[in-house]
Task: structure prediction
Amino acid sequence: MMECPRESEVLEAVALDRVAQMRDHLDACASCAEVAQIAAALRGDYDAAVRDAHVPSAGVVWWRATIRARADAARAVSQPITLAQGVAAAAAIGLAFGFAGVAWRSLTSGASLSEMLVRLSARSEEIATASALVLQHALPLALGLAACLVIAPVALYFALSDE
Result:
């Protein structure tokens, strides 16, 4: 079957719903008649799809766009926090392995528990003095720490609030 040079005109006529103007040519040309029939079926499906399509209101579109923008902003803000948490976790793991290495070396260096107790008993007076000093300053230190734990979230709330 050969293509007709007027095939594009037939397609345009079907698209613009002017098939009646091309009726003489469609009766004479089987190729164009078939193209017109297929194009009309596709055009009918398109019209039905457009008719049945549910377009949301502008308010719904705006609301969805706002929700998406907030989610994108939250995702963008959380990326540095996630990175900082990863660095902190890596540092904590490194410190844990470091302390484990030091503890292992001290245990395997040949120093027995009895030698350690002898050294501690020789320095018992220094340990008692240090303990008394820590106990004297423990209350102000604990109060300062508690104040920081209470004030920091409140300060962050006011610093990060939108109003």
Remarks:
- Residues 23 and 32 are 10 Å apart (CA to CA).
- The mean pLDDT is 84.
- The helical segments are 7-15, 23-28, 30-52, 58-108, 113-122, 124-160.
- Residues 58-108 form the longest helix (51 residues).
